[in-house]
Design brief:
By secondary structure, the chain is of the alpha/beta class. Helices cover about 45% and strands about 15% of the residues. It contains nine helices and eight strands. The protein has helices spanning about 15-25, 30-40, 45-55, 60-70, 90-100, 110-120, 160-175, 175-185, 195-205, and strands at about 1-5, 30, 80-85, 105-110, 120-125, 130-135, 150-155, 185-190. Strand 5 (about 120-125) and strand 6 (about 130-135) form a beta hairpin. Helix 1 (about 15-25) crosses helix 9 and helix 4 (about 60-70) packs parallel to helix 5. The structure holds BIS(adenosine)-5'-pentaphosphate (AP5). BIS(adenosine)-5'-pentaphosphate binds near residues 11 and 13.
Amino acid sequence: MKLIFIGPQGSGKGTQAFRLKEKLNIPHISTGDIFRENIKNNTELGIEAQKYMNEGKLVPDELVIRLIKDRLSQDDAKTGFILDGFPRNTEQAKALSEATDIDKVVLIDLDDATAIERIGGRRTCKKCGTVYHVKFNPPKEEGKCDEDGEELIQRDDDKEEAIKKRLEIYHKETQPISDFYKEQGILISVDGSKSIDDVEKDINKKLGL
Ligand code: AP5
């Protein structure tokens, strides 16, 4: 199954994609995670992307499209994938249509106030990237990852100014692409304000899983 997850910051795209990839045994391809991995390893791509990410801006299309085309051409993505964080504007959506077919687009909806509350409490494992929330999805031991015991940290782009910018860009550039997929009859929407388990159930039901 070839899937896209769209939704505002904090709607739970990464959280839900992580659960679904286990169920479907397909790769979870998050452009944000790929950039963060490159920043951690101090690569040329990471250095370039960080300039935009820390300010809450989009990384230039040319860079992201090249990266995704390359990732989708790898063997593990031939039969299916979950794209999380791509496409984010019409330019990227058009480039993706030229590269591959998509079965379903899952829109996880959430209001801005809840999104900001969620992002403020998000903690991520420094090593493996597992995502937690101090209130809604806490680790067993405070500040430590359940998977590998590593330290949990806050993302650099989760500062208030960057969050506002990211939400503004979402409404202006990313939200409109849901219409592009609606017209193709492949868009499904779920209410992201429910609990993590309930959002998961809704997604599975609407995907017929
Ligand atoms: P990216 O990493 O994709 O971030 P994002 O889109 O801003 O999304 P988030 O990771 O903030 O939210 P999410 O929906 O995944 O929420 P999560 O599951 O973590 O992108 C970062 C940056 O990279 C961009 O700003 C841009 O600069 C660049 N970039 C990436 N892709 C690009 C592209 N295509 N083009 C150009 N630039 C690009 O959940 C959030 C929190 O809420 C967690 O703590 C979680 O535990 C909790 N939570 C989740 N679901 C629930 C629930 N149902 N109830 C309660 N709590 C919940």
